[in-house]
Design a protein that fits this description.
heterodimer; A: 91 residues; mainly beta; five-stranded antiparallel beta sheet; globular; B: 214 residues; alpha/beta; two-stranded parallel sheet; 10 helices; 4 strands
């Protein structure tokens, strides 16, 4: 099931080893799907020349308030990042 | 911060660069070995490799500036650019390879800033090689933590009420900022407008030049 733009999502707070394209500073944070980017080979396998199944890639928008809490420079500014489907859960 | 590299200058004012007469690193050795094997087995020729390096070095922000200027002067093209920036760039004749490009638009309400916190992802296939500061830990960490302070250091003063949107290129997309067309450029053609579009204005760390500043 592809998540629709506007869906509320939360980034899984996992710390697996290896080549991970989900930045640490966004793990456990909640945001909104800004757009669906399509299906791309999972870099977590691709980086090691392993068979890499395609996964849906999303652009997720966070508020700076959500990412940095009370120390945010401007709470209503936003940050977008590309996150693979297996890193998302319902918010 | 943008220009923190004045510390090691020769008397002639040029920066020193260390001679590379130390041994090869593991990965340099690996690269040479793989390259020589590919050439030996006839997969590629040495001149094809040199040509590809040359093609990469020849790409410059001028390509991106032409895309921006076209978007400023051609509303239909701008719509195609915002919908699919890769196809719009190809339509202008730029060979950007398989790059997936997303254009983000600066308006009176929004200012966009591009960074890659994990490494140094940059739309090289359109803009050429990234500036050195783009790859530093300082830019990469501060652009997401305190983008407004970074913008001020680059000389970008935002009007009250402008929202900053930072874009972290974490995976397969690359980003280009479509800056707002400067005031006072009515009647200028795309070629003249392209000369106003700086590299930094397409990263978001700068604004386009104005006709009076060129």
């Amino acid at each position: 099931m592809t998540r629709a733009p506007g869906s509320a999502v939360k980034i899984r707070a996992l710390s697996p080893p290896g080549h991970i394209r989900t930045p640490h500073y966004l793990r456990g944070k909640s945001g909104i799907v800004e757009r669906v980017l399509g299906r791309f080979k999972n870099p977590e396998q691709l980086a090691y020349a392993l068979p890499a199944p395609k996964r849906v890639l999303y652009r997720v928008r966070f508020t700076m308030q959500e990412v940095w809490g009370e120390t945010a420079e401007a709470p209503n500014d936003t940050l977008d990042a590309e996150i693979y489907e297996h890193w998302l859960e319902d918010a | 911060m943008p220009h923190d590299h004045h510390d090691h200058l020769s008397p002639s004012g040029h920066p020193y660069r260390q001679d590379n007469d130390s041994g090869l690193t593991y990965w340099q050795t690996m690269e040479i070995a793989v390259r020589e094997l590919l050439v030996e087995k006839g997969e590629v020729t040495a001149s094809q490799i040199a040509d590809q390096i040359s093609a990469m070095d020849e790409r410059s922000p001028a390509n991106g500036a032409a895309v921006v200027a076209r978007a400023w002067t051609d509303p239909d093209f701008k719509a195609r650019l915002m919908d699919n920036a890769s196809d719009a760039s190809r339509e202008m004749g730029f060979d950007i390879g398989p790059m997936h490009l997303v254009a983000v638009e600066n308006t009176a309400e929004v200012h966009n800033l591009i960074v890659c916190t994990l490494c140094s992802c940059y739309p090289r296939n359109l803009l050429g090689l990234p500036p050195d500061w783009y790859k530093t830990r300082e830019y990469r960490s501060r652009a997401v933590r305190e983008p407004r302070a970074v913008l001020r250091e680059f000389g970008v003063e935002l009007a009250n009420g402008v929202q900053v949107r930072v874009h972290d290129s974490t995976a397969d997309m690359r980003y280009i900022v479509l800056p707002a067309r400067p005031a006072g450029t009515e009647g200028m053609d795309a070629e003249a407008l392209a000369a106003l579009v700086s590299r930094d204005s397409m990263i978001g760390t700068g604004l386009p030049r104005t006709p009076s500043s060129t």
